[in-house]
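Feature request, filed as a ticket because there's no other form

It would be nice if the structure record came with a short human-readable summary line next to the tokens. Right now we just get the raw output. Example of a typical job, pasted below so the devs can see what we mean:
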Amino acid sequence: MAARTGETTHAATTDRIYAAVALVAAVLALVESTTPPWRVAAVAVALVPWALVVARREPPAWLFLVLAVLPVVPVVIVGDVGVVLFMTTAALSRFASRSVDLRVLAAVVLAVAAVPFVPALVRDHAPNGAGYFAFGDVFGALVGLLVWRTDRLAARLREADADLAAARAREERQRIARDVHDLVAHSLTVVVLHVGGARRVLRADPAAAEAALADAERVCRESLDGIRGVVGLLRDPDARQGVSLDLAELVGTYRAAGVAVASRIEGDAAALPLATRVVLYRVVQEALANAARHAPPGGAVTVAVRVAAEAAHVRVENPHGERRPSAGGFGLAGLREQVAAVGGDLTGGPDAGSWVLDCRLPVVRHAAASA
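Raw output as currently delivered:
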């Protein structure tokens, strides 16, 4: 709607400029010599289509051209060529700015360019300056064609801008969907583990069951806060709340929930660019959530993270040769999109009885791109 409004406003401005040229030519034609009443009437009739155009009551293109050009012909025949011919030049140029049929336009240009030579039909020779005015008509048609082409290019640019805005909106929705998926999948997995552990020891060790339920409640509250923060981005994109990206804390959460996790973290993940660090955290988070869901009882999960100057490497293994894809398409597929966004690559699949997820995130290249 905004693009259409901008296009209409631009066309109205162009019409006013053309109408102003025609009006100035009409005034000069009436004051340059004696003006009998019929000449005033002819010039006034030639101004009628311009008045309709400015009033946004535009007649059909052919009718506009006839009303703007034909009344000028008797003025030229009787009074010789002069400034009044600029009225026909303005009409021709405007017609060309809205014409898409080049054959029709070529015929109209020839007809209007012949108007300065009409007095030669009743005299022995062509009037002085006829060739100059004919050239002016051709030049005006070329200007009209340039205006037409500019309008088309501007319309395409507006359409492209609208498409880019829609693509940005889709990308933002996908990012929010991934954030919600990652947050909910991680939190619910930990809660299920805590609740399951509490159920198993409820009678034998009520204190341990109560502690597990307390941890589950804490994780639920943190998940709700995180979801509120993500949903809040829909109202205020600048109100992003701080989120912990501590890998050791993430691993500790799963250990507290009863998952056997052996971790080895080399290097300083906090020194990574923020975008790379967020993706690194998401990869480990998703891998642990999947391992907790699919790993057999007693199976140990191995998390190895190595941060170097050139790249960050993540390798997560759990003893499970099969893996069901995540529902909704935001699991491994979503991770690949996030990893690819920072120039990395990610692979996942069975390897010697284990499910292995391997990821590499370049550091130097992404940092340069951020700069």
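Something like this underneath would help us a lot:
The chain has two domains: 2-162, 244-371.
The first helix runs from residue 2 to 31.
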